[in-house]
Automatic annotation (TrEMBL):
<feature type="transmembrane region" description="Helical">
    <location>
        <begin position="302"/>
        <end position="322"/>
    </location>
</feature>
<feature type="transmembrane region" description="Helical">
    <location>
        <begin position="43"/>
        <end position="61"/>
    </location>
</feature>
<keyword id="KW-0813">Transport</keyword>
<keyword id="KW-1133">Transmembrane helix</keyword>
<dbReference type="InterPro" id="IPR000515">
    <property type="entry name" value="MetI-like"/>
</dbReference>
<feature type="transmembrane region" description="Helical">
    <location>
        <begin position="107"/>
        <end position="128"/>
    </location>
</feature>
<dbReference type="Pfam" id="PF00528">
    <property type="entry name" value="BPD_transp_1"/>
</dbReference>
<feature type="transmembrane region" description="Helical">
    <location>
        <begin position="149"/>
        <end position="170"/>
    </location>
</feature>
<protein>
    <submittedName>
        <fullName>Sugar ABC transporter permease</fullName>
    </submittedName>
</protein>
<keyword id="KW-0472">Membrane</keyword>
<feature type="transmembrane region" description="Helical">
    <location>
        <begin position="237"/>
        <end position="261"/>
    </location>
</feature>
<feature type="transmembrane region" description="Helical">
    <location>
        <begin position="190"/>
        <end position="216"/>
    </location>
</feature>
<dbReference type="InterPro" id="IPR035906">
    <property type="entry name" value="MetI-like_sf"/>
</dbReference>
<comment type="similarity">
    <text>Belongs to the binding-protein-dependent transport system permease family.</text>
</comment>
<feature type="domain" description="ABC transmembrane type-1">
    <location>
        <begin position="103"/>
        <end position="318"/>
    </location>
</feature>
<keyword id="KW-0812">Transmembrane</keyword>
């Protein structure tokens, strides 16, 4: 019996040793294959390296500074030497009367931007896709792309030239037609429409690039089959063109929802004045005012962190809804 037990133990040890050896060989084989794969595409990964370094240095490394949202940050003491206060800055912000005003202003501008600025590039892409003259199509594309390369300073400067109460072309035209004087730039009711119009004029043309790229993958045979079936132009757009770019539309919508609280500092800040501040103050401008001009670094960091968390929640929520509507849509 003892000999059988010893033999059984020896067999078990041998099998265990073989399994470990096989696992080691399998691991070595995986590393070898992985090394060969990276070596085969080494130049592609070399091109990827600057992007990785950029994100590591300027996107991920500064995230360590987010900890000051939970501290009473004093620059002379540094991040580690500052006093820990937990969620005190968040409670202070939520109890502040500015919270409701900032949140409502930001959400209104953001949802107006998505509801107006988001569909227009899709419409432009569909219309450009229907053009048969390649020369005319390239000319239109160039014209609508140009505003994207203008800075917000130039865009706001052009807006002031057009709508200024002293010599503005549109202001003078309005006065000559109605006999009344209207200060477009200082009217709180006109602030949001002007912001949305600027966003549409500057970004609509550039936004068509992704949708035109998606439309370029649509097989011409689908259009030919639709024509044979008697479908008109609008039917072809509805049943062929739009379904082909639906996944792209959903992904772009999810990404837009993620940055919904990021209304754009430059544009809002340059368009804000003392008369329209009640509707112009948003999270971006408020963080600048509190954090930079008043030196409340911890408080402003807490506001920025809150905005980022809301953006993550909106991304996940939109992605979840998109998957429930269409299983092939979504990011995750």
């Amino acid at each position: 019996m003892d000999n059988k037990a010893e033999t059984q133990n020896e067999l078990t040890k041998t099998l265990t040793a073989k399994e470990k050896l096989n696992d080691i060989k399998e691991t070595e084989s995986r590393f070898s294959n992985l090394f060969k794969y990276f070596w085969k595409y080494k130049y592609l990964y070399l091109l990827l390296l600057p992007g990785i370094i950029y994100f590591a240095l300027f996107r991920y490394a500064p995230m360590y500074g987010v900890i000051i949202a939970f501290k009473n940050y004093v620059p002379f003491l540094g991040i580690n030497g500052s006093q820990w206060v937990g969620l005190e800055h968040f409670r202070q912000f939520f109890d502040s009367p500015d919270f409701v005003r900032l949140l409502s202003n930001t959400l209104i501008i953001a949802f107006l931007g998505i509801s107006v600025s988001f569909p227009i590039p899709i419409l432009l892409a569909v219309l450009l896709n229907e053009l048969r003259s390649s020369l005319y199509k390239r000319f239109i594309q160039t014209c609508i792309y140009i505003p994207h390369f203008l800075s917000w300073t130039i865009v706001v400067g052009l807006t002031h030239l057009l709508f200024s109460i002293n010599g503005g072309v549109i202001s003078d035209l309005y006065t000559s037609l109605t006999g009344n004087t209207l200060n477009f730039l200082a009217n709180p009711e006109l602030f949001r429409p002007m912001i949305i119009l600027q966003q549409v004029w500057k970004g609509a043309g550039w936004g068509t690039i992704i949708f035109l790229a998606a439309l370029s993958r649509v097989s011409p045979e689908q259009y030919e089959a639709a024509i044979i079936d008697g479908a008109g132009r609008f039917r072809r757009i509805w049943h062929v063109t739009l379904p082909a770019i639906r996944p792209t539309i959903v992904i772009m919508l999810i990404l837009s929802m993620g940055s919904i609280l990021n209304t754009g500092f430059d544009q809002i800040f340059l368009m804000t004045n003392s008369l329209n501040r009640s509707v112009a103050d948003v999270f971006d401008t408020y963080v600048y005012t509190i954090g930079i001009t008043q030196g409340a670094h911890s408080y402003s960091t807490a506001i920025g962190l809150f905005r980022s968390l809301v953006g993550i929640i909106l991304i996940l929520t939109t992605d979840f809804i998109a998957k429930r509507v269409d299983k092939d849509s979504g990011l995750f």
